[in-house]
Amino acid sequence: MRGLAVLLIVFVLTGGNFFAVNVDDGHLASSSIMGKHGYNGECKLVMATGNATAGDYNLLLKVRDPARPGLQVLCRIPSGYEYDYRHPWFPFKMHFVVERGFIGTTTLKDTPPNITKAGMLMNDAAIAIGDADTISYLTNPTRNAWDDFDWMRYAMQSADTIEEVIELLTEEGVKKLHASSVAENFFVIAPDKAAIVEADAF
User: Fold this and answer.
1) Cα–Cα distance for residue pair 134/74, rounded to 1 Å
2) What is the rounded CA–CA span in Å between residue 140 and residue 184?
3) How far apart are CA 32 and CA 66, in angstroms?
4) What range does the domain containing 170 cover?
5) Is the peptide bond before 113 cis (omega within 30 degrees of 0)?
6) CA distances, 61 to each of 95, 128, 185 (Å)
């Protein structure tokens, strides 16, 4: 049985259209996958699975460009935690109950009692996720739109499998809610598989 997904965290001080690609470790061989932009000052990710690692585990590395100034901290949200957050289009609140506890890296002020906005996180189903912005203008233009942290939290707080993460990011977050103010490359990794999802709000 494969070991748990590992979330490695590195900080730097620099401050419907979607697709999903499953990374099958039978085809990855001794390679890793790197996602980065053609411009500076953004997050970068590396994902290694199967025999690209030295043992029976998968790896996710994120070099983070914090979106907000302040100390970066680890924040754990337990299952059963409840909070209200805005609908991505309309001026009313949605109520959420965290079904899968998670731990993530966030700016100090983005922790409870405020809304948790983790730039990378892993839930208690041993699924980890990190994001890197991509260029697309097909985004939610309203002031209620969700940011990338909201999008990831929405998927990870209830997903039991990597397939459910992908469904929540795309079928729910894109096709149903058209939620996001940004377009993203999501790197999602579980103990036995991984996926890369590129998505915007439409």
Assistant:
1) 25
2) 13
3) 24
4) 6-199
5) yes
6) 32, 10, 14
